[in-house]
């Protein structure tokens, strides 16, 4: 066999091998089922607003791919915590998924349908008790920061025997100010600051009786749990957690009736929580809004909001240091 023929044969073999590899790669990466694309324009995080009988109620959706052929995700409704979605169906711009009920009334699945158009989504949501509401959604902002902020002057949000800089929402106001302590003796209204904040550092102290429950909402959207949790394992719904999203590294809650403290830093989506002097969440990302949020407008500043509708609780020494 001459040298020229051998060279041409080797070249032809290489071409055949490359063609075979290209076909194999395409067969591996191309989704055989077009309703389950490997990468989809639907993937990502969405800030959703549900029209509940004329009242805008915030929700949130995240969609991502799992393996080559399945879209999965998680969903926060206008009540409860973030819940996993085992499969999101998406074909020809139409999406749908179902998840089991959580705190809702009714025994059916929560069902969501929608359409993706021009980087926006809209559709309908049917609750486990059979009520159907319309909703709209936009892509959630990344909120990434390239540098640490410069901090302004600390602002005291408690003090004296008057409630200043706060307003009550949701029910008849049961909050009382006594010697610098904001006291909620029973379930009732929530308290919201008149002022809104972007990035900030927050010091807050709380005392909660046995079995009670409260929470501190950052920008009115991200709840850090306040519960009677002494002796419990760290969990997504117990003291120190970002409700439904981030579990604290350890449980450092004190006995019911004792004063606890949080020192919280929120920069964009990144949160650090120091509970009773121990760092239990260190610069972790909050994916989206938690249940009970005031709105889903994540790109905007928001107020501080403390929960008073889940049982008795007291707060004191609330000091916020906003970024300049």
UniProtKB/TrEMBL annotation:
Endpoints of the signal sequence: 1-32
Coiled-coil boundaries: none
A Pfam family per the record: 3keto-disac_hyd
Domain 3-keto-alpha-glucoside-1,2-lyase/3-keto-2-hydroxy-glucal hydratase: 155-320
Taxonomy, superkingdom: Bacteria
Key words, A-Z: Signal
Annotated GO MF terms: hydrolase activity
UniProt keyword ATP-binding, yes or no: no
Keyword Signal listed: yes
Name of this chain's protein: DUF1080 domain-containing protein
